[in-house]
Amino acid sequence: MPWIRGFGKHLPERIVTNTEMARLLSVEEAWITQMSGIATRRFAAAGESVASMAAAAGREALLTSGVEANELGLILVASGSAERRFPGPAVEVQQLLAAPQALALDLPMPSAGTLFALVQAALWAPSRGPVLVIGAEKISPLLLAEPLEPGTAMLFGDGAGACVVDPRGGLARILDWELGTDGTGAGELKLELQGPIRMNGRSVILHAARKVPAAITTLLERQRRPATDIAVYLMHQANANLIAKIAQSLGIAPESFFSNISLYGNTSAASLLIAAAEWPGPWRGPIVMAAFGAGFQWGALLLEGEC
């Protein structure tokens, strides 16, 4: 199996506090913190786009991986907030990175899109060579569209995360994965061509709190790994309370889950790789990545770190 070789991230400069969000949404600041565990989030500038942030994170991932852009065989970009119907941001990222030899494919999937892209990268890398996986979101303009929905708008932020999947070696080898889809939940979290994000928060939390632990358990049982042996759980940073529920379901301490949601909010497809880029390591022993998102789509990935 291929390896994850290195990570990168890009976060906009503008920091939006709960004080500012509470004023904008006409809610109590303490309510935002209690319901989400978020203290601040980043909002992109007018001149920043999904593609420009994706390229910035991609450059950092290439740098930390020691891989040149002209070595890439494939670029995968996951996003639920691309600014146009087509072409998607992947082709623009290919141009910005000067990697014309790389195939460029989009996954129009928020939240869990990066996890699914990592699985695709693991399958493509043996034949294509190094694969650049990016999750990037510019959600803030959607949050501020009328009518404002406080329970949704308080959650999200902008940013990008990236990693290089390489068949030649790296930080951690991709061992196995478990993915799932349940289309009956398609209406519970959606973004139409016009209008704001629509989310049934209660339903999303309920399904995520069941499906993610089930996927992790199936994966670990197949690999004969107890949940308590995992060095760290790197989750899509959706909600601090949800992460705590998943830890409880697995019977492990919340401290086993790395979290930076308090700093950046839910950056959707970007969050998993931003978290991985910020986790201090070491990349040693078994590591689990997991995510849940619109669709419903969810899954877990098992890595083995050796450095």
List keywords for this structure.
single chain; about 300 residues; alpha/beta; 10-stranded mixed beta sheet; two-stranded antiparallel sheet
3D structure, described in words:
With 307 residues, this protein is an alpha/beta fold. 36% of the residues lie in helices and 27% in strands. Strands 5-4-6-7-1-8-14-13-11-12 form a ten-stranded mixed beta sheet, sandwiched between helices. Helix 1 packs across helix 2, helix 3 packs across helix 4 (89-96) and helix 8 (201-222) packs parallel to helix 9 (240-250). The longest helix is centred in the C-terminal third of the chain and has 22 residues, at 201-222. It is globular and about 50 Å long.
